[in-house]
Amino acid sequence: MHSSICQKFAPRPLVSTRVAVPRASMELNVTRRILIVDDEPALRSGMARCCRGWGFEADVAASAEEALALLDSTTYEYILTDLHMPGIGGQTLLERLAHVCPDTPCIVVTGDATYGSEVRDRPNVLHSLQKPVAPDLLRKILLEEPLSRPPRLQSTIAKRPNSAPVRVLLVEDSATDAMILDLAIQATGFCAATQTAKSVREARALLRTNEFDVVITDLRLPDSDGLKTVRELLAVASSVPLVVVSANDNDALAEQAIQTGAQDYLVKGQYARAALGRIVRHSVERKKTEARLLRLAMRDQLTGLVNRVFFRERVASALAGARRNNRPFAVMYVDLDGFKGINDSLGHDSGDALIQQAAARLQKAMREEDTVARLGGDEFAILIEDANSPQDVLRIAERCRQQLAIPFELDLQEATISGSLGLAFYPEAGNSVDSLLSAADAAMYRAKHAGRDAVCIFSPQIHEQSLERYRMEQLLKTAISRNEFHLVYQPQIASDGSVGGAEALLRWNMDNKTFVSPGVFIPILEESGQILDVGAWVLSEACREFAALRDKGTFLPRVSVNVSGRQLEQNDFVESVVAVIERHKMEPHQLELELTEAILVKDPKRAERMLTALRDLGVRLALDDFGTGYSSLNYLDRFPVDTLKVDRSFVTKMMDSERTLVLAEAIFNLGKGLGLEIVAEGVETQEQLQIVSEKGADLIQGYLTGRPCSPEELSERLRAQAVPHDLSSPPRSEAPENENGEDLGEAESGAVEVA
User: Fold this and answer.
1) Which domains does the chain have, with CATH numbers?
2) Using CA atoms, how far apart are residues 727 and 700, in angstroms rounded to an integer?
3) Nearest-CA neighbor of 506 among 476, 457, 542?
4) Mind listing the pLDDT tens digit for each residue in 52-106?
5) Which residues contact residue 236 at a Cβ distance below 8 angstroms, ignoring those fewer than 6 apart?
6) Going by C-beta distance under 8 Å and a sequence separation of 6 or more, which residues neighbour residue 635?
7) What distance in Å separates the CA atoms of residue 64 and residue 79, rounded to the nearest whole number?
8) What is the pTM of this model?
């Protein structure tokens, strides 16, 4: 009745991964593909537009690495390439192309007039052209010269566009019908490699051990009949397109076959060559598309490295091999130290360039058999197999660390970072993919906490610390809602014994029963990003309690609140400070924000804008822990600070070290000379008090003059100011204790007060 009913059923939705073939009226077209490799976007896109206008399907690549990746799944009639590109470069690309696709003619398009015979005389180079190339010349080479190619490239004509044979499995018990079908396939113009099976059982065996591009099957076979044949074949090769060729000219059966999973249904003796060719072409293109999509799904688009999904598969494969052969391997996590600051200050384009360079350096440091992956952001992972010993793995890790320590060239600027590396060995660190990756991640964090630019090997102790850190991170997420945080205030005392201000210090009573040191939980807040919510709570709570003291008639000149670097990075930080001040009806100068030098140097321009805006509002600004960080005189001149806080480490050592005393005196003189208020932190003895007072400290903060206390205790201290106190016998208040009876006050008064 008809030669094919694919027209009737093609529009119907098919099963899962199968795509309906084009209509029978479509003619068999030869796809001409061309690949253009150039790192200049304008030239790349311009040549691609021209080639598409001449009938080519043009793919583009910005580097040799991208070009080689495309060649994994696509065959091209021509390759146009530049010579000078980032990465491995054009000349190396030509060498590799000679091995990967020796029959593909290459056309060199370059702005370098100095290249010589080592390029022109390569067997796979058809032409070498100087930029800018005239479109008419390029068109003539691509469309008019093929018949006059050099002998070494003549075979390319015969093999394009399908040099690889199409693998066809014919499932047919009639030798005559199988031969007729095979001849029909060959007549389509495709180079087809066919195998024949006379039963479903034989076909299933072949499908398990071979790869095919298409299966063409009869429905009636010695061991199967009807739609059962389709189901049994698809059961072992669900991703291979299957076409039914049957003697039964039945529309209902054809529809059922397609609904079961067949791509098409042809009637024996009535199929046209064009229909058969279309089916074969569709199968080949579908396979190429699937391979390309799979490659894209498994690759990081920025670096070309494998991604997290593929890396997990590689680790799983290594794990299976190690279990069979009792062969250890290692997983390494790499995190770039200081990347965020570069990304924020120089921009995302520079950040991307740095990530690409870091990826290339890590690959350079590894062996060919190792797998380097980008997990996302500035994190990488490496699978190290077949290492002879842990010492070999450590040497590889050290090479990676050294590569990352070399300055990076970014837009004519030099940027320096480092890497924190964590190693996990199988089987010591775990016997599953998840446990090994978690172990490497934990070791990497330990390296980062140990000072960065280091390599750390996973151990059971690190595992315990990682679990404890995770437990605390989860508990911190609900600490605000469970009212587990509270503030204490350490007075800042003037020479006459009056309270000149108070610094708000954050305390955490975990589960409302265990006090945790800020030195433990604040770094977790910083790394997890929870510091933003907690910092906002501290600012609001300190201002609320200040207002409560004021409303009770208790006068506190100002309250000081520590600010995290993450808070200062928020675009709306100044607005949030203004909102808090207005909500609690405070004067701006009654709030002082304390910042460390480390916060300011991350992004000096942004910090200067933020601080200037706050200072213009009247908010006081204090530079905390001065003398322990960069201590740049430029920062004192550049940033509009009001107060200089001399770190407790100087105050503590002044009695024992003449050098420290000289340095401390210089800091006091510097602050006074700039008209800044000086606060001496960590004063614990009368001798220290005497020295800092002589040096010109305006306010004293420390155990000697007052431990951190509750708002109620601070209120009592303020009410008692009617009778000024002599600093020789300062009042004392009890500091909170943890479950072991350890004091929690002074440990943070000059160290980790950051809220």
Assistant:
1) 6-27+163-296 (3.40.50.2300), 33-159 (3.40.50.2300), 308-458 (3.30.70.270), 472-749 (3.20.20.450)
2) 10
3) 542
4) 888 888 999 988 888 988 888 788 889 999 888 887 878 888 888 887 888 788 9
5) 204, 207, 208
6) 597, 600, 601, 604, 623
7) 11
8) 0.51
